[in-house]
């Protein structure tokens, strides 16, 4: 197993900063090009061996990774806290979910339906057999805001390994020391579990990441992050026809029906808790709430914000981008004098960069906007990363639904209803399903379950592939492709289609779904 590539110095370093103070604590050297090339060769060499292992074997590899992460919980949470400022409780919860999801993806592989194995007669003596095979080495670009969930370990890495692909991860510059330590633990766990050399490795540095995207050995790219970064990778990989599964996020809407507005206090409290969760740095953050005029939700939200503490954002760049974003939102919203005073306090009234002398702390903000403000080119249609949200009060639901249609498609939407008999809810849900990957009814969108039914994706520009999900059982589908053999001898068929079914997976034989016995 190749250890972290960060051990080899390249031409620069990724410095490590504490968002709570802005102070630097060490750095990690970039991976030299020749070492990246060696990692790629090892991954390509390992690909056939990994693809030939049984799903149950890969399940054991992932269980070993989960065990290693759990055993080092205190160390990892402390290190992540130093580089993200997200707080121990949030980080412990995220690490626990990472451990659980890693085990889950192993179980999905072992269950076997992702292989879509089938065989049938097609007339006379002819047969046709089809199944899914792993695509080969996968490059993963992790997120700044989920150091455990999407990065050196987490959903993309675990689902690619479960599908039978070697994985090479690029360390995120927001948490380089944590990235290296996580890679050491994952590499050691895979070594002990007997995974082939080349199954997993880490590279550090922007140029090393580009080298991965350009490399002939890489067959797919998974990315979680900004729209700009994701689309740049899509464009770069397009030269080789390599798919990029980029989860980027946009403005996730919330719609409160007339009947649901009776609980304005509860909705206001829930909205504030959701859009400020993790300092508003979730891809599922609700960024815009439509509420009936006169319900008092905007005033209730603004009162709730007075109780929310100032929080650090992940990086200096994100903090400056947040303040610039607030300025644009304030202008687009046409804030009143009273609201402008609050905007000045948060730096929203100026485009001049604010010096970050005491860490990357920012204050949460909310703006009241009008339906007519949602016109093409409006800043209100674009995401502002951080703890800010918009509230739009409507006089009639039809006008609000028309405004919803002008939003960019997004990952998720929430709809709050008055109950099963709510006359508005069915149309709202139907309209939103054309624009999002998931609709949460009477629930906030920030919770994402790792499950068989989860869809964590959406139409462009929230993702680069609307047919994919980066969370849930369907995440494995990104890293396999279908093949078929006509008139196959038994020697031509994989274990997935052997008559004895040694992998004990569901298969379709002559059109009939056949489950493993016992």
UniProtKB/TrEMBL annotation:
Family matches, as Pfam families: Aldedh
Keyword Transmembrane listed: no
Domain Aldehyde dehydrogenase: 16-458
DNA damage found in the keyword field: no
UniProt GO molecular function: oxidoreductase activity, acting on the aldehyde or oxo group of donors, NAD or NADP as acceptor
UniProt KW keywords: Oxidoreductase
Region (Disordered): 1-31
Protein name: Aldehyde dehydrogenase family protein
InterPro entries, sorted: Ald_DH/histidinol_DH, Ald_DH_C, Ald_DH_N, Aldehyde_DH_dom, Aldehyde_DH_Superfamily
SUPFAM superfamilies noted in UniProt: ALDH-like (SSF53720)
């Amino acid at each position: 197993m190749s250890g972290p590539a960060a051990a080899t110095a390249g031409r620069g370093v990724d410095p490590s900063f504490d968002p709570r103070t802005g102070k630097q604590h060490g750095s990690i050297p970039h991976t030299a090009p020749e070492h990246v090339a060696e990692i790629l060769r090892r991954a390509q060499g390992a690909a056939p061996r990994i693809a030939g292992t049984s799903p149950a074997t890969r399940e054991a590899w992932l269980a070993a990774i989960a065990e290693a992460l759990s055993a080092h919980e205190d160390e990892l949470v402390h290190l992540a806290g130093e580089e993200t400022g997200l707080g121990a409780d949030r980080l412990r919860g995220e690490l626990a979910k990472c451990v659980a999801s890693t085990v889950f993806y192993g179980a999905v592989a072992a269950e076997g339906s992702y292989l879509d194995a089938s065989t049938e007669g097609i007339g006379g003596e002819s047969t046709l057999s089809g199944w899914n095979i792993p695509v080969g080495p996968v490059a993963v670009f992790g997120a700044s805001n989920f150091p455990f969930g999407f990065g050196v370990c987490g959903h993309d890495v675990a689902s690619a390994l479960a599908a039978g692909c070697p994985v090479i991860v690029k360390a995120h510059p927001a948490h380089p020391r944590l990235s290296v330590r996580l890679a050491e633990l994952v590499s050691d766990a895979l070594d002990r579990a007997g995974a082939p050399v080349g199954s997993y490795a880490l590279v550090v540095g922007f140029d090393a990441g580009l080298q991965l995207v350009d490399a002939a050995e890489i067959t797919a790219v998974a990315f979680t992050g900004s729209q700009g970064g994701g689309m740049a990778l899509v464009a770069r990989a397009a030269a080789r026809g390599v798919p990029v599964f980029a989860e980027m996020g946009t403005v996730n809407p919330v719609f409160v029906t007339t009947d649901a507005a009776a609980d304005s206090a509860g909705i206001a409290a829930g909205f504030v808790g959701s859009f400020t969760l993790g300092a508003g740095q979730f891809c599922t953050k609700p960024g815009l709430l439509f509420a009936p005029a006169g319900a008092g939700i905007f005033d209730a939200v603004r009162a709730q914000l007075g109780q929310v503490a100032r929080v650090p954002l992940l990086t200096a760049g994100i903090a400056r981008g947040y303040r610039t974003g607030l300025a644009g939102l304030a202008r687009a919203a046409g804030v009143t004098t009273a609201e402008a005073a609050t905007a000045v306090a948060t730096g929203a009234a100026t485009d001049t960069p604010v010096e970050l002398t005491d860490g990357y702390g920012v204050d949460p903000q909310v703006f009241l906007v009008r339906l007519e403000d949602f016109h093409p080119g409006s800043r209100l249609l674009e995401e502002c990363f951080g703890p800010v949200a918009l509230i739009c009060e409507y006089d009639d639901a039809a006008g609000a639904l028309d405004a919803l249609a002008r939003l960019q498609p997004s990952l998720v939407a929430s709809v709050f209803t008055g109950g099963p008999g709510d006359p508005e809810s069915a149309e709202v849900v139907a309209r939103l399903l054309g624009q999002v990957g998931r609709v949460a009814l009477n629930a906030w969108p920030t919770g994402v379950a790792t499950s068989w039914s989860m869809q964590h994706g959406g139409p462009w520009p929230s993702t680069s592939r609307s047919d994919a999900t980066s969370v849930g059982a369907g995440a494995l589908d990104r890293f396999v492709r279908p093949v078929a053999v006509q008139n196959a001898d038994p020697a031509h068929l994989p274990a997935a289609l052997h008559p004895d079914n040694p992998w004990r997976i569901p298969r379709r034989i002559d059109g009939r779904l056949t489950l493993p016995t016992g």
